[in-house]
Amino acid sequence: MIRPKGNVRWIICALLFFATTINYIDRQIIGILKPTLEQELGWSEIDYGNIVFWFQAAYGLGLLACGPLIDRLGTRAGYAAAIGLWSSAAMLHAFVRTPFGFSGARFLLGLGEAANFPAAIKTVAEWFPRQERALAAGILNAGANVGAIATPIVVPLLTIYFGWEAAFLVTGMLGFVWLLAWLVFYRPLASHPRVSESERAYIDADAAAEPVVRVPWRRLFVQRPTWAFAIAKFLTDPVWYLFLFWLPDFLSKQYQLDLKTFGPPLIAVYLLADAGSIGGGWLSSALMKRGFSVNAARKIALLACALCVVPVLSATGTSNLLAAVAVLGLAAAAHQGWSSNLYAVVSDTVPRSSVASVMGIGGAAGAIGGMIMAQYVGHALESFGSYWPVFLWASSAYLVALGILHLLLPRIGVAEA
């Protein structure tokens, strides 16, 4: 395929990357501030678990609602409304003090943040040919890791010098900066004034093989691609939520790190995750360019990622911080590479007009898994004071998910209406 003149699609991808970065800063800040807020506001482990639970509940509800809404409104309007809501909710945290108040603020945050990945993956499906989608998904997904890297750098500094309230206010305002850039630059592919004809033709090269008919939302629930994606998200998303919301606490309990010292280990973990996100997306794209089928390329990449998570169990049994960071970073990298390819599977198997809806359904399943995780970890820590059972489950979740995905989708190919 001849390379086109123009790279507007990659500018769009950069905007998706930055939106995801902001999304994860606003999401992860509660985990960074957990030890501080527990001390200042008197929270218990169960209080914190409940706060995370209500974020996950809203995230799941939001994903079910926002998918069909974005498919109807389009990504420009849908994305704008979502980031406006979640940025406002992020700033609201600065004005509450009780677990109930934080639960309400996190609930609103979850509703808004739910739209990010359905809107982003729908945008990728509309702006990239099939052979570039996993790479584009990997790049935007890397924004999650950049957000996770930036948070332990920025939030402790803001908290130490200005108080934890300032951390929520400053990070919340970033979303409104992005919103302005999105409204100024983004237009649909067909009407974007900066897209050359050769780039538009390159992007639409797969369009003839991908039906544009809209699939009724209820009908999506009887299709195998929807169930394959939803089950995989249900089993594996909670592992990522474990890293986001409990990794600072794990480092604090296991290695006696605090707000001033757990930044470097967290940064190392998420730098590795960043490499995994892009590398995992690159792997399946590279295999396809070398003649592998879509089915083989996606599943080889997913298997490689699943195997790399297995050693994470050893993190709970070592007193060596460097060794723990290495296996945690490998697992985080594998999760992000896994996600990049799993998102690409949706665009491979679902019509473009229904991508956001299926992303929403799968994301809701992942949020339900995260809700179960939030309640389980909170009670496990209160009762046993150990992360070992949680990491045991995390180490095997991806292999189980891949086995189920293969049974439901023995051949990943052209999307069907």
Automatic annotation (TrEMBL):
Major facilitator superfamily (MFS) profile domain span: 12-413
Lineage: superkingdom: Bacteria
Localization: Membrane
Record carries keyword Cytoplasm: no
Keyword Transmembrane: yes
Residues passing through the membrane, by range: 51-70, 133-155, 161-185, 227-247, 267-288, 300-317, 323-346, 358-378, 390-409
Pfam family, one: MFS_1
SUPFAM superfamilies in UniProt: MFS general substrate transporter
Primary localization: membrane
Keywords, sorted A to Z: Membrane, Transmembrane, Transmembrane helix
GO terms for cellular component: membrane
Mode of membrane association: Multi-pass membrane protein
GO molecular function terms listed in the Swiss-Prot or TrEMBL record: hexuronate transmembrane transporter activity
Protein name as it appears in the record: MFS transporter
Organism of derivation: Sphingomonas desiccabilis
